[in-house]
Write a structure and sequence with these properties.
Blueprint lengths: L1 H24 L9 H28 L1 H47 L1 H22 L9 H14 L6 H18 L2 E9 L5 E9 L3 E4 L2 E5 L6 E3 L6 H12 L15 H8 L3 H7 L1 H36 L9 H11 L5 H19 L3 H33 L5 H57 L1
């Protein structure tokens, strides 16, 4: 019924278009001069329009049978298409039923194989990710592509894995395990720390590390390229890297990273000794300067007291006093005042000993002051660092610990530097003070002996 209405509408549009074209084709009348001419033009136009309508009606009647035939053909074609649509719907429903039955049959027949294929897909995915991050892929690039494609095919379609696919996964895992126990050498493009690229001989230590030219390398999993670490570990690890490159066989000491680069990455991020000292800031450098000055004074006192001790020991073995040592100068006082009584000689000897004491104990007080001031300076740095930390918390909050790390580092490093300076200064002061007291004790002992000898003579 709808098709019939559309055909009638179509014929109406054709008739309207024919009328419009006929009206456009008629010649336009000239402009009327008076009312009579206008009336005459209207009558002529009405007559011509009537003749045109009659002609169109006659043509329409002549084609009426043709239009009816076209309508019948369209209705017949519509009926055929409706029957075809019903048949296709029936076939679709039957196909759905058959597909469901076949899926159930496939599930029943697969049984435990379905679980096997699920495990195979998971293993392929895991192995693909592991191979992307493995240093072995630097020597054998593109290993994960086949496994990744297999996992995608098994997940996106109902296609089952073949024996060859299962064997390929097994072979890839077996090769990874085999290569993990080898130290291999190969040539590949290496990106230096300054950005230059060059072909270099690279030594791969299992699945742990890559070294070249005595430096540790890393494999960028995103690009698959090999590059030098911007910061290398300490010298003892670099020495082992050189040894393993220069040795063809035998046992070689080498620093292995069992995590495949994670520990090495953290190791190179650790600050060096210079960087740790620099974290102490101005207070840290002042503490180190005080420590250096105190060490110089302690070294000077150690050498001086050692020389004085040797001279005093030699003087003890001699009977004749000498001017080149404190004991000799004290003993010369006895010869300088031979007729003095015991009390006067005792005072003169005490005076001579007091003159020698400042020379023996010189700079010891400054060393003691440094040993006391150094931890106080460390405490000052600690307070300053904590102030900086609280200022960072006030401005940025506690969301990012890195913003507080600078103040905390300064607080801890200055404390450590203060203790590092104070502890050896205290030990040095104690040692030097003991040596000086021993020398002074020898002078006092010898002076007491001289007084006792003079007193015996007087009696």
């Amino acid at each position: 019924m709808k098709l019939t209405q559309r055909i009638v509408q179509w014929f109406s549009v054709i008739a309207l278009a024919a009328t419009s074209s006929a009206a456009l084709a008629a010649p336009l009348p000239q402009d009327p001069i008076n009312l009579d001419q206008l009336l005459q033009q209207l009558e002529q136009g009405k007559f011509s329009q009537s003749e045109s309508n009659k002609q169109r009606e006659q043509r329409f009647r002549e084609k009426e049978q043709e239009q009816k035939a076209m309508l019948e053909d369209a209705i017949a074609q519509r009926n055929q298409l409706e029957q075809r649509a019903e048949q296709l719907e029936t076939d679709f429903e039957q196909n759905e039923v058959d597909l469901g039955n076949l899926s159930d049959t496939l599930t029943q027949r697969m049984g435990s194989l379905k679980e096997l294929f699920g495990v195979l897909q998971q293993v392929a995915n895991d192995a693909s990710g592991k191979f992307d991050n493995s240093v072995i892929s630097a020597q054998y690039p593109g290993r994960s592509d086949a496994l990744e494609e297999l996992a995608e095919n098994m997940s996106s379609s109902s296609k089952l894995a073949s024996i060859e696919d299962i064997e390929s996964v097994w072979f890839a895992l077996q090769k990874e395990m085999t290569e993990s126990g080898k130290v291999a050498e190969f040539t590949t493009e290496v990106t230096a720390a300054n950005g230059d690229k060059a072909e270099q001989e690279v030594v791969r230590v299992g699945a742990f590390n890559l070294v070249s030219n005595g430096k540790y390398l890393e494999r960028m999993s995103s690009t698959g390229s090999v590059a030098e670490l911007v910061r290398q570990p300490s010298g003892r690890y670099l020495d082992t890297a050189e040894n393993i490159q220069q040795t063809d066989s035998g046992i070689v000491t080498f620093g292995v990273d069992p995590t495949g680069g994670s520990i090495l990455g953290l190791l190179v991020q650790a600050p060096s000794l210079g960087e740790r000292i620099d974290q102490g800031g101005t207070v840290g450098y002042i503490i180190l300067a005080l420590g250096a000055i105190g060490l110089l004074f302690a070294l000077e006192r150690f050498v001086s007291l050692m020389l004085l001790g040797n001279k005093v020991k030699r003087q003890l073995k001699k009977d004749k006093p000498s001017q080149d040592n404190p004991l000799g100068r004290v003993m010369l006082i006895k010869d300088k005042y031979p007729q003095a009584d015991t009390e006067t000689l005792e005072l003169k000897l005490s005076e001579g000993i007091l003159r020698e004491v400042p020379k023996i104990t010189r700079n010891l007080t400054f060393i003691k002051i440094i040993s006391v001031v150094a931890p106080l300076m460390g405490l000052l740095g600690t307070v300053t660092g904590m102030i900086n930390t609280f200022q960072a918390i006030t401005l940025f909050g506690t969301g990012d610990p890195k913003l507080m790390a600078g103040g905390i580092s300064q607080a801890l490093v200055t404390t450590v530097l203060g203790l590092v300076v104070a502890i050896p200064m205290t030990l040095l002061f104690a040692t030097l003070h003991t040596r000086s007291k021993n020398l002074i004790h020898i002078l006092q002992e010898q002076a007491s002996g001289i007084i006792a000898e003079r007193s015996e003579r007087g009696e």
